[in-house]
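W.,

You were right to be curious about this one. When I first looked at the sequence I had no strong expectations either way, so I just let the prediction run and decided to look at it fresh. Below is the sequence, 407 residues in total, followed by the output.
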Amino acid sequence: MTNLFGIICLIVLGVISFFSLYQLGHAILAILYKTSPSDQRRARTTRFLILIPAHNEEDGLPETLQSLAALQYPKDLVHIVVIADRCADDTARVARAGGAQCLERNEGPGGKGAAMSWAMQVLRKEGVVFDALVIVDADCLADSRLLEAFDDALAKGHEVQQGYNYLSNPWETPFTRVIAVTSVLRNFLFYGGKEAIGCSAMLSGTGMCLSRSVVDQHGWSAFSVAEDWEFSVSLLLNDVVIHFNPLARVFARESKGLKQASRQRLRWATGKYAVMTNGARRLFLQGLARGKVNLIDGAVTLAAPNYSSQASMTLFALVCSLFLSQEPAWGFLLPWSLAVLGSLGGYFLLGAMHTQSPLKTLAGIPYIAVFLPWRLSIEILGFLGFGRKGWGRTFRDSATRRNTPGT
């Protein structure tokens, strides 16, 4: 039994050590590569179609539309369309009152991916003209320079972009403070590092930009619970790089606590594991066969445990190593566990330093003792397939406040 625990601990530490070094390498690259807004102003000619999938979003949609109305981009080059998918509230009325075109959908396959695919077909038949498609969730606020940032990157040939997804309410509760840090870890430090070396980010469901040529060639072909991850795999296999654009920012209203967030996080976890099972394998094998580092990196990204899971697994290894510390053959596990835990702690602090208020962030650290068990339970349930249901609304308050991470 002692040897069994030792072997399990060894495997866990080996896996987490790899991903810890992988993340730290990305973080260093992101900090060195840090992107600044361009001082050059150029004429704007790109025509943007902004698509907003919405399911019972009458409460949050007005603020989303107001933020889009305030975009610093020529109004005649922006067309906003809301997809009111199977709505039982006044989403459609709110959309039209906010100046957007509204497509109402009450039949056909369910889910966000199916709704977007349907809308693209309808708009194509209507002859809507655009050069790039932007997808924004109905509960997000758009930074005023969102389209300018996307347009600048399109001019550089970046045909698929993932913007910086952050929170509009990072300091509201201890829960949102922890999520604020993990958002910086994922966006600025992880995807920012990938952009520095030409590797691909993953689409995150909102704040996405696709050129017209990509839309015409690929449409929207992902219909699972994790349609963004599924579509990312499809694009990578077709040699389309997903560029991370840190200057294109959207701000989501985060749930205040565990109860509100559980349903959405479980859906995401279930969807990710469903895509990961086949997607990571295909990316890895294709990467080896074709000599494509970007595909192998995509497989690693897809297979990587999230930060919270890494921390929980390391704590498990630490407890095991304490019991094994008196065994000569396994004595090395304790210092190794402490080193990995220190590495993950340093990574978290690095993320906290790159929020707009590190001290406020650090005040949420005690909440990690509650957050980690909750997050681990979500991951376990997701892995087992619970929560594999269709599109549902996550209940939040409005997204009035907007904050910008200090990146």
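Here's what jumped out at me. Residues 258-290 form the longest helix (33 residues). And, maybe more interesting for your project: Strands lie at 48-54, 78-85, 101-105, 132-135, 140-142, 160-167, 208-211, 243-252.

Coffee later to discuss?

I.
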